[in-house]
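Q: Now give one record:
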Amino acid sequence: GPSNSEGAGKVSLLKKVPALKDGDFTLAECTAILLYLSRKYNTPDHWYPSDIQKRAQVDEYLSWHHANIRANAPKTMWIKVLIPLFTGQPLPSEKLQEVMEGLSTSLKQFEERFLQDKAFIIGSEISLADLVAIVELMQPVGVGCDIFEDRPRLREWRRRVEDAVGKELFFQAHEMILNIKELSNIQIDPQLKEQLTPVLMKMLK
């Protein structure tokens, strides 16, 4: 998301995080960063396969993801925690219901189009597509919207991702998301509230 810090502006012209600084090279956008790191460090082939068709399947999911899963899942966190924290007022329940309906449609497409009867998005091995998907889908869980509970296929996919990554690392990576409700107890600087509240509200439009 957007960042008003001076450091973020030096790394990303868009002043958004995540951003990467590798020596004199800088890069913004999470997908671009993941692909760059996978190529630079010669990661195991299953993350971003050398097979042109499997790689295209990863690219296809990443392209679809932003306008679907990413467009809905993080909003649950903004509605239930972040916007009330910055504005001091809860949002109407109808707003969460609207987002959950959009997310439900995206999850149905995710299961039927991408997951199908496979272990992972592109087949029998985990890839960057699975990592990008799970990070977004853990955000509703962190605010009490367990999207896996009534979706056995999705629940089993999550379990396989946990196993492939390693449970300890998986929960370490998602620790902040799963404890996001604790933010409701912190005090926000008034100036920061004034700066970020319009940005957060704009994200929900």
In short: Confidence is low (pLDDT under 50) at residues 1-5. The CA atoms of residues 81 and 181 lie 6 Å apart.
